[in-house]
Structures are given as C-alpha cells and as structure tokens.
Amino acid sequence: MIEILTASEVERARETGRLVGNILNTLKHRVQVGTNLLEIDAWTKEMIEEAGAESCYVDYAPSFGSGPFGHYICTGVNDAVLHGLPRDYQLADGDLLTLDLAVTLKGIASDAAISFIVGTAARAEDLKMIETTQRALDAAIAQARPGAKVGDLSFAIGSVLTAEGYKVNMEFGGHGIGSTMHQDPHVSNDGRQGRGYTLRPGLLLAIEPWVMADTNKLVTDGDGWTLRSATGCRTAHTEHTIAITETGAEILTLPSGPLA
C-alpha cells in the first residue's frame, strides 16, 4: 500500500514528527554512562503516553521477528544495528548507541533513528561511520522532490556509503509511512537512478541509511529480534521521516528545541 496524504494529514504528520524528534533529542541528552537500556525504554513509554500518542513497536509482530516486540524503542549497542530489543544492560563509556523510534499520533505515524557515542571515549572510526550515515541521509533528501524516482534516493545513499568503503546490506532499508509504520515503496540503501516509484506531493518516506564497519552480513540475536553485524563490528543508523512537498522535501522528525 502507498498512501498519499491530504494537506490536513500532512499537518498531523508534522505534529507526530516533532514528537519523535523531541523524544529522541531528550533521550540523547539524558543518556549517560551507566544508563540502563530498560531505563531508556521506560522513559520513552512515559513521553509517548504523556503526549497521548501510541507506540508502533509494542504490538509489532512481523514475520521476521519473534514478536510481539513488547517495548517502546529499539536500542542497539555497538554491533547491534536494527531492531535492538531493550535489555538489562548498563551503557559503558564509548558505547555506540542507536535509538530507533516510531509512534502514531492522531492517526499518523512517524519514524526516526539516531546513533551517538555514550560518554567521552569516542573512537574516530565510530564518529566517521555515524557522520557518513548522516551525509547519506542528507544526500537522499536532497534528491526527494515530485517527479523523482525512489531509485534516485537509493543511488544517492549508496554513493555516499560506498565512497567511504562501506558495504551495503539490501535486506532492510527505508519505507513509505502514513497511517501505518511500514508501507510501500521500499527505499533500499543502494540502487539505480531513474528506477522505481515516482514521488508525489503528500507521500511520506522514512529514509534510513545504516552501515556496519566491515561487513554487509547480519545475524539475529538469541532474543529473536536484535540484528547484529556478522563479524561483531560496530554499526550506525540514521533516519528521518520526510514529506514530499510541491517543491521538494520537508524533514518532519527534527526536534523543535536546540539540536543535539
């Protein structure tokens, strides 16, 4: 299913996007060395419920997971890049943490992810990997306009990632979003220009470049959800939900306060 939202629905999507951006920004500032992943999940639940929103994850039970997910946010540490199931783990100085959040407010969903270093013991290679996913996301958004093809966005992402030497996994990528979290079209993290669905005003896309330092192979953790790099290398993931407008693209999941 591909949804094209009305102007009033896009306005509601802006509200949902701000909420997602603000929650992630708040969590980034609150997390510190010693924070437990289950604390992050509890904080997220509290903020979602205070806003009168609903989690897209608690009852999420796709064919590839061991569901339902049962938590409010994905928390990936170091080699865990996607669907990180919150667990009893205290973050250490230098951990690379990925937070992925999707909520629904007033019938419209929004989805975003951030990766950052906990504490002060940052590795240069981790910072480069995070920055590369951010640049790949920016490159895709720059291509997003009416008449562009999904393949144009995928090509932009893949060009940035591969130029830095990262291998691209094609199993999981971005997606359409609207009244539900996951919709068509699929937005892979590499592709060919001029191919795929033609973008139209009112289309919402969750675009999410992610990489693993030295592999493109994933393994599933024993929890049935968390996807880790097959080699144990570190990983990074950046995501925004955007709306296609008459003239380009609008990022919906930016925080309304000072940027992290």
UniProtKB/TrEMBL annotation:
Removes the N-terminal methionine from nascent proteins. The N-terminal methionine is often cleaved when the second residue in the primary sequence is small and uncharged (Met-Ala-, Cys, Gly, Pro, Ser, Thr, or Val). Requires deformylation of the N(alpha)-formylated initiator methionine before it can be hydrolyzed. It is an enzyme of class 3 (hydrolase). PANTHER family: METHIONINE AMINOPEPTIDASE (PTHR43330:SF27). Belongs to the peptidase M24A family. Methionine aminopeptidase type 1 subfamily. A divalent metal cation 1 binds at residues 100, 111, 239. The keyword S-adenosyl-L-methionine does not apply. It comes from the Bacteria. Its EC number is 3.4.11.18. One of its GO terms (molecular function) is initiator methionyl aminopeptidase activity. Monomer. InterPro entries: Creatinase/aminopeptidase-like, Pept_M24, Pept_M24_MAP, Pept_M24A_MAP1. It catalyses: Release of N-terminal amino acids, preferentially methionine, from peptides and arylamides. It holds the Pfam family Peptidase_M24. Binds 2 divalent metal cations per subunit. Has a high-affinity and a low affinity metal-binding site. The true nature of the physiological cofactor is under debate. The enzyme is active with cobalt, zinc, manganese or divalent iron ions. Most likely, methionine aminopeptidases function as mononuclear Fe(2+)-metalloproteases under physiological conditions, and the catalytically relevant metal-binding site has been assigned to the histidine-containing high-affinity site. Keywords: Aminopeptidase, Hydrolase, Metal-binding, Protease. Residues 12-246 form the Peptidase M24 domain. The gene is map. This is Methionine aminopeptidase. A divalent metal cation 2 binds at residues 111, 175, 208, 239. It comes from Glutamicibacter arilaitensis (strain DSM 16368 / CIP 108037 / IAM 15318 / JCM 13566 / NCIMB 14258 / Re117). HAMAP family: MetAP_1. Substrate binds at residues 83, 182. CDD domains: MetAP1. Its cofactor is Co(2+); Zn(2+); Mn(2+); Fe(2+).
